[in-house]
Amino acid sequence: MTILRSPAGIPDATVARLPLYLRALDELAERGTDVCSSEHLATAAGVNSAIVRKDLSHLGSYGTRGVGYDVRFLAGHIATVVGQTQPWPVVIVGAGHLGSALAAYQGFGARGVKVAAVVDADPDLVGTVVGGHEVRSIDTLSDVIEHGEVSLAIIATPPAAAQSVADALVAAGITSILNFAPTALQVPDAVDLRQVDVAAELQILGYHAHRRQAEPAEEAVLS
Amino acid sequence: MTILRSPAGIPDATVARLPLYLRALDELAERGTDVCSSEHLATAAGVNSAIVRKDLSHLGSYGTRGVGYDVRFLAGHIATVVGQTQPWPVVIVGAGHLGSALAAYQGFGARGVKVAAVVDADPDLVGTVVGGHEVRSIDTLSDVIEHGEVSLAIIATPPAAAQSVADALVAAGITSILNFAPTALQVPDAVDLRQVDVAAELQILGYHAHRRQAEPAEEAVLS
DNA sequence: AAGAGTTTGGGAACCCTTTCACAAAATCGA
DNA sequence: TCGATTTTGTGAAAGGGTTCCCAAACTCTT
């Protein structure tokens, strides 16, 4: 049996926060801030300062004690670490409501993501334009991928179609998939799969809301 | 300073998986499966069986050794635990591409979520219909909330507007927010905030893809 | 030059989550 | 009825991640 190592380097939890730091740093840079403390960055990123320092220490020591971090330098360094020196080209599979919304999203550019293609199985949608991208037939998927146009894929199809789309993506050599369809996809270990499930997020919120209602607002601890 | 307890009961990691089990169980029930093992459910939910058993043990002992779990019964029980006996009404703030896509999403009903209202600040959008919901003015937000129409809120606005929307939601008494805007919102401790950041998800995938490229496919461990 | 004030980096403790492993409880076949 | 087989439920171990805390390193003021 094969075990997929996650060899050297950066803990998963840290990797998941690097994009937040990057976003926060870009914002700070735009506002003209040259240097920021871990406390400052923590607030901007929505986490606490201890975790910022620990996370950044995994990337090496780029801060100055008594001063803080150089905003532009740190942003550049994180961008390098996450491989964002060039925009990542992504293919969006599914040009329904969600796929169209993603295709039209203007915020990708600043975050190192470029929509390279939008494909759909519905002949009526093929040829239409969403967010400046002409929808191609799903039959062109392997061409698009194998010609090196894309390295990341987003699945925005109905759940029933998601598994066969995933199979096609994997067959064409894609190893990174972001799945919006609410279904558990089966992919090889070597493929990196992330899931976004909006209904599940709401249900999690619902659980806590439900408990708050049930319980008579228990006492807060500590003076 | 106030500390928000997460008092008795179910670990956060388990709560986050309950919606997946619920979805998987509903699928199994539709296919006519009456009983399933932890192994079976694990495959359907995309996790491993040890975790399924541990998670379900937090809800009480509802399985039968040597047999498995009653699909319908377990689904009903989980639905009760997550407070999904009645659909949760949600308000969507922002009727742009993403807000419209969410408003039009047909899958919420089956997952215990009901879109109660869609609001936007743009006068040109107010009065239009998205996914069967007439867009109301954002000025009606407090009315909608205070009249008990909704208990969950989705922010689907541009990042610049997100904080003021969050403030308005909190002022109106909302305590559960799902934020799609790529910005760190500042809310009171008592408010439950979850974040969906599509670009960040892609950047995380990018990091791993980047590493795969860089490293010459290191050896697998174990024979 | 020296002392006061800031802020990083990282060791150590703590906490949460996952995985392991197996006794207990059920079914089934003979 | 009994032994073989299946599968749950759960202690215990292992593994990560977060938080705490403080020495070290820097700036600033006097």
UniProtKB/TrEMBL annotation, chains A, B:
This protein's name: Redox-sensing transcriptional repressor Rex
Organism encoding this protein: Aeromicrobium flavum
Transmembrane parts of this sequence: none
GO molecular function, one term: DNA-binding transcription factor activity
Domain CoA-binding: 83-184
InterPro entries to which the protein is assigned, alphabetical: CoA-bd, NAD(P)-bd_dom_sf, Rex_actinobacterial-type, Rex_DNA-bd_C_dom, Tscrpt_rep_Rex, WH-like_DNA-bd_sf, WH_DNA-bd_sf
Entries under Gene3D superfamilies matching the protein: NAD(P)-binding Rossmann-like Domain, Winged helix-like DNA-binding domain superfamily/Winged helix DNA-binding domain
Record feature DNA-binding region, as residue ranges: 20-59
PANTHER family membership: REDOX-SENSING TRANSCRIPTIONAL REPRESSOR REX (PTHR35786), REDOX-SENSING TRANSCRIPTIONAL REPRESSOR REX 1 (PTHR35786:SF1)
NCBIfam families listed in its UniProt record: PRK05472.2-1, PRK05472.2-2, PRK05472.2-3, PRK05472.2-4, PRK05472.2-5
